[in-house]
Each structure stands twice: as structure tokens, then as C-alpha cells.
Amino acid sequence: MTAPVTMRQIAERASVSIGTVSHVVNGTAPVRPKLRERVLEVIRNLGFQPSALAQGLRTNRTRMIGMIIPDITNPFFPGLVRGAEDVAFKHSYRVILCNTDNDPAKESLYFNELRSYRAAGLLIIPAAGSDIASSLKPGTAGIPPVVCIDRRPDGWTGDSVVVANELGAYRATQHLIQSGHRHIAVITGPSLLANSVERLKGFRKALKEANLPLPAEFVQEAVFDTRSGFQAARRLLRMLPRPTAIFACNDLMALGVLHAIHELDLRCPEEISLVGFDDLEFCEYTSPALTSVYQPSYQLGATAANLLLERIKGRKGSPKRLVLDTELKLRNSVLPLEHSSWSVSRMPRTARKSPRKVAAAR
After folding, report:
1. What are the distances in angstroms from CA 186 to CA 22, 189, 199, 277?
2. 132 in the same domain as 13
3. Which structural domain, as residue segments, surrounds residue 152?
4. Are 275 and 205 in contact (CB under 8 A)?
5. pLDDT in tens, the chain (362 residues)
6. Between the chain's N and C termini, which has fewer beta carbons within 10 Å?
7. The domain spanning residue 346 has which CATH number?
């Protein structure tokens, strides 16, 4: 393996000082054009590649942005990461991506490692139960600028970019109510996540304004994935009476609901109407196409990256909480109740065969 070229070698070949080579490479001071060109020619001939790590150690900051996300397999996050990466790249920064698996301990480990690598700033989508606010107090010595995205952890008072979760959920629930549904259930996400809490709040608000009851068993908590949405839907669809509509607080859980509806020999939307949240690409291709609350994932990432770059450049000011709007995308998974074939006696196939199981599910 060939040893890396050093600045000393360049200086000797170009007959200049090491300081002159450093000024040419790092742009730290002007160098006479002819001298600069001589150094650059030697650099090209020797194939010199500056060490970003060494530069970071000298300046105590690299041009890396650390991005910590909870679940790289969740199809909502790639668009968000892409938005952040596009903005960072445009400004000559590079994004280092870390996946926490929604584990606060892993999140803390990544945070400390990114600090040791002299990351210029951090974009963080907090894990469920994150304690990151305690170690990321704005202005703390040695802490790079930080922007939280999508979720605000408990106690966080720094910059954040989120969507209007409560309003989006409120609009989705209103749509079900205006379609004539009066027995509406919700599959919510983990109670430790701020966006999950906000979406449940919007759901409850719409029902309260319409003077509709909400039985405790009609609120099912899951973990924002397909399997838990499927399991929660099975519990709901075996109840007596069962709901005529379900609001799933993300699209992966809504996909699980569709699987449960089909498995139990029911039909969507004729017997069960369904609304999701995220408006992921697959919503247009499910059967039926899924009505869902659109949240702008790419814009979330891009907005957060732009805000972070402002802080990296030294722009002061009070912490910002930017809230992006959502939009309800209407498709085919909701049917007005007067046109549906809903009936209390129309129980799922498995429930009709085993009445005792129905009672147990309640």
C-alpha cells in the first residue's frame, strides 16, 4: 500500500514552505498566483488528498453533519434524510447517518461519538423515551448546534422542525365524522413520542366537538409498524359492537389494519373505513387506495438542515420551533356510512365461529 502524500513532500517538491502549502490547501491566507499554481501542480502530480479528519482536529470542527434517526426501515424517513442531505451537499457539507432502532441508549452512544468526530452540527429524530434533552441543552460548551426533527423530546428547548400533527389528525377524524361515522377507533403510536401524543389529541378533540363517545377499548396503542397495527386492528374488529371506522396514526399501522380486515373476511371501505397518517407512496397502490394525512417529509429534512446551517454559521437568536402544515389526501378507503354495508350482525368470519373469543377480546 502506498503511503499517503504529506504536505512536507509537497513543500520540498515545490521548493516552498510547509506553511505556504497549508495556505494553498486550506485557503487560510492569500498566496501569489504563480506560487499557488506551482503548489497545485505538485499536488496534482503527487495525487495529494487532504485529510478531513486532520483538518477537523485543527479547527475543532469538520464539514460533517451527523444525522440520527430511529428506524431506517420506516419508509417515512428516507425522504426526510434526502431533504437534509440535498441541502447539506449544496453547502459542501456531508451527512453521516446513524440508526438508533428507537433505543435511547444507542442514541446517546451515537451522539457522543459524533461529538468526538467534531461534527459541525446534529440533526436528530429522537427515539421513543429519549433523554437527549438533558445532554443537549442549547449553549452548553462542546455541544455543536442541534435541530430536532419530527419529534420534540421531553424538556427540549432548542430548535425543532415538526409538522402540525394535532391539526392533521383532527382533520382526518373530522372527515370520518362528516362521512357519517359515529363509532370511530384509533390506533395510536407510543405514548412516549410527542407526535403520537399530538395525533391522539387531535383525534379526541374532533370526537369531543361532535359529542361522540370514545370507549376506552377503542383507543389501541401500537408502535408505528405494520405488525402492531395488524394486531391492534384484530382486537378492534372482534369487538361487539366493533367500530365502523379506524384512524391509524401512521401508514405502516394502516397497512396492518388492511391486512387484518382482509384476514377477517371484511371489506374496506364497505364495512370498515380507514384513514392513515404520512401519505407514503404505497398509499396509492393499496386495495383500496388509502386516504391519508400527507406530511412533507422532504421539506422537513430540508428545512431542518437550513436551520442547522444558520446555527453553524453563528447566527444567534431564540430557539425556533418551525411547524409545517399537513394535508388530507382523499382516496378510496372511506365510505359514507349511509352507503356502507355495515351491520352489527356482520361479524368477522373468525368471530362468528367463536362467540367466546369475541367476549374475551373485549
Report:
1. 61, 10, 10, 12
2. no
3. 60-157+297-327
4. no
5. 566 777 888 888 888 888 888 787 766 788 888 888 888 888 888 777 665 555 554 555 688 999 999 999 999 999 999 999 999 999 999 999 999 999 999 999 999 889 888 899 999 999 988 888 887 665 566 789 999 999 988 889 999 999 999 999 999 999 999 999 999 999 999 999 999 999 999 999 999 999 999 999 999 999 999 999 999 999 999 999 999 999 999 999 999 999 999 999 999 999 999 999 999 999 999 999 999 999 999 999 999 999 999 999 988 899 999 999 999 999 999 999 876 665 544 545 544 443 333 333 33
6. N
7. 3.40.50.2300
Can you count the helices (H) and strands (E) in the chain? 13, 12
Residues 60 and 116 sit within 8 Å (Cβ to Cβ): no
Does residue 1 fall inside a structural domain? Answer: no
pTM summary value: 0.80
The letter for the amino acid at 206 is A
Identify whether the C-beta of residue 159 lies closer than 8 Å to the C-beta of residue 95.
no
Q: Dihedral, CA atoms, 219, 221, 226, 231, nearest 10 degrees?
A: -70
Phi and psi torsions of 211, nearest 5°:
55, 40
Comparing C-alpha atoms, which of 305, 297, 298, 302 is closest to residue 146? Answer: 305
